[in-house]
Amino acid sequence: MTMQPQLVPEAGGSPNPGTPDSPLSEAGVAAAPQEVVGRSPGQLAWRRFRKDRSGVISASIVIFFFLIAFAAPLIEKLYGKDPYTRYGQIHPGLLNEVGAPIAPNGGISGEHWFGIEPAVGRDVLMQLVYGIRTSLLLAVVVVIIVTVVGTILGITAGYLGGKVDYVISRVIDTLLAMPSQLFFIAFTPIVLALFVSERETTPTMLRATALIIVLSLFGWTRIARILRGQVLSMREREYIEAAKVSGAGSGRIIFKELLPNLWTPILIVATLDLPTYVTTEAALSFLGVGMTEPTPDWGRMINKGFEGMQSDVTYLAFPAIAMVIFVLAFNLLGDSVRDALDPKSNR
């Protein structure tokens, strides 16, 4: 039987260029292998978020409000008005004898685009601009404080367990059982009285500090409870046990193993908390225990708008509508962020 010689392919070559398995195309040109590009969790979340139309629109509205608050001094310079000057008492013809704006719709004119405040004649537009600046500044500071404190205590309770977990959990349960709104109303004046007597005028910075302290005292419990539950379920998993066996300390396990897996709930809770504190601060100002005259604040504006709403509803409408739009947009943004960060989302 005659043996047929076998052709040995060169190194790296194809055994049969004519077969379909050959990397050579019909034109004899080698086809480049397609590289599979993976996406990080952040890229996948951003991709899901961009497909959420309500999330994109809400984010645009929220960014607009933040830009307005940040650029308030520039807007004041370009507009030529400030939120403190009583234009109705300086310039005749803006207010009538009972303090109501003479011009229709709350005194809207080319000089005052959103009208003027009844009785004193301050510009409404600049009060709105600086009002969101006040509310956002307080809310952002409170969110940062409660997020840091709640994260530390929640992870500590969940990871250490035992007596530490028992004490922190009981403190959380006690604070959550107390009516926070009534506590804010009752204890804000007490905190202020610790630093300023009743005969003295409370500085604006001190009043803002008291609000931050009171709001932060209760605010950290929510995120602490969520993270405690997360850590309790994570500390028994294999990769945590492997890190302990390898000799990793508690600090390394917390910062390298636990914390990277907790950023999603932390971000979601912080996003949902910020509009809550904006409305809480406005409610306290509306009730007279928050920011007071002459500090621009949406809650104070709504309070004064209720006093004259029977004669002119314009002064009440602007801060109320602005707050509804901001809070609704931020809540929708928080829902969209939660859906985008959820790996089970089908968006």
UniProtKB/TrEMBL annotation:
This is ABC transporter permease. It comes from Embleya hyalina. Belongs to the binding-protein-dependent transport system permease family. It is a multi-pass membrane protein. Residues 1-31 are annotated as: Disordered. Keywords: Cell membrane, Membrane, Transmembrane, Transmembrane helix, Transport. The chain crosses the membrane at residues 56-75, 136-162, 174-196, 208-227, 313-333. It is found in: Cell membrane. GO terms for biological process: transmembrane transport. Pfam families: BPD_transp_1, OppC_N. Signal peptide: none annotated. PROSITE patterns: ABC_TM1. One of its GO terms (cellular component) is plasma membrane. Residues 132-334 form the ABC transmembrane type-1 domain.
